[in-house]
Amino acid sequence: MKFYFSAFLWVLSSSLGGCAQDYSLAPPANTEQVTVRIKVPPELEAKKMEVMYRSATCQRTRRDAYGEPYKVDGFHGIEVQPQQQGQSDIYEAKLARDGGGACQWHLANVTFGVVHRYPEQFGDEVTFGGGGGVVVIFDNNDSPMGGADTKVDGDLTVEGGYYPLLQESFIGGHRVQLVLWRVTGGYRKYQALSAREIYFEPMIYSNYVVRSVGPMVKKDGGYRKIIYPDGSVQFDGRSGPNFNNLEAIRQAVESKK
Question: Per-residue b/e over 26-52, b at no fewer than 16 CB within 10 Å?
Fold first, then answer.
């Protein structure tokens, strides 16, 4: 197994104890692995995975609202670059369940996903703004993105399409960001305690662009205007488009083909 160490995502403080300051990973040669595979469409690309390990041996000290100290599991973050499998559209990474080392690290969670390869195809000023992310939790702790929305037994398959959402803002400077939108622009979060195989197959519906146009000035009732691919408009204070509406529009068009 090969890890691609880029940078710590989380810095371990000197409050880690019990490891004589040696909190490096050292996975045993025969450790069980979790395989993460992503099927990447041409318009998207796989981003680096953010992998967290936890340790009950090397704990951290925190303080409560009264200033009293208490202990929590230590954590160690690395980045792992998924590797293309031959000339295919599959990208893969293998993660050690047992992180080993003096701290006896265990795999806690992984955050991965896709970004748009060419946001400028939606306009010269468009930059990528997020979406297309997945979090899988392998223990009973929350991830850096919070707790799981869905719990699964065994292996995990995550599929589904994303709509390109162009978020245009004016307050604080004009900018247009591309978000891969599903139900929200955030992360899909799962707890999969026994998973050995994680498979993610995203799609993007590039012909069904939805726009979100913010107010020019800050004022009461200055809601965002959501413009759907069929020209219909939503102006009711919701932060993003209704995913079911987008699905209905796309299905209506495709049924006529």
Answer: ebeeeeebbebbbbbbeebebbbbbbb
pLDDT on residue 80: 97
pTM value > 0.90: no
Q: Is the backbone of residue 193 left (phi > 0), alpha (psi -120 to 50) or beta? A: alpha
What average pLDDT does the chain have? 89
Q: Residue 21, exposed/middle/buried by CB under 10 A (0-12, 13-18, 19+)? A: exposed
Pair 241, 210: CB distance under 8 Å: yes
What b/e string do you get for 77-103 counting C-beta neighbours within 10 Å, with b at 16 or more?
A: bbbbebeeeeeeebbebebbbbbbbbb
Per-residue pLDDT at 222: 72
CA 169, CA 174: separation in Å to the nearest integer?
6
**Any idea where the domains of the chain sit in the sequence?**
1-161+187-200
Give per-residue pLDDT as tens, 184-216: 888 999 999 999 999 999 999 999 999 999 888
Beta strands of the chain (E only): which ranges?
Answer: 33-39, 44-46, 49-63, 69-80, 83-84, 90-96, 98-100, 105-116, 126-131, 133-137, 150-151, 156-169, 175-181, 187-191, 197-204, 210-213, 225-227, 233-234
pLDDT tens digits along 1-55: 434 333 333 333 333 444 445 778 999 999 999 999 999 999 999 999 999 999 9
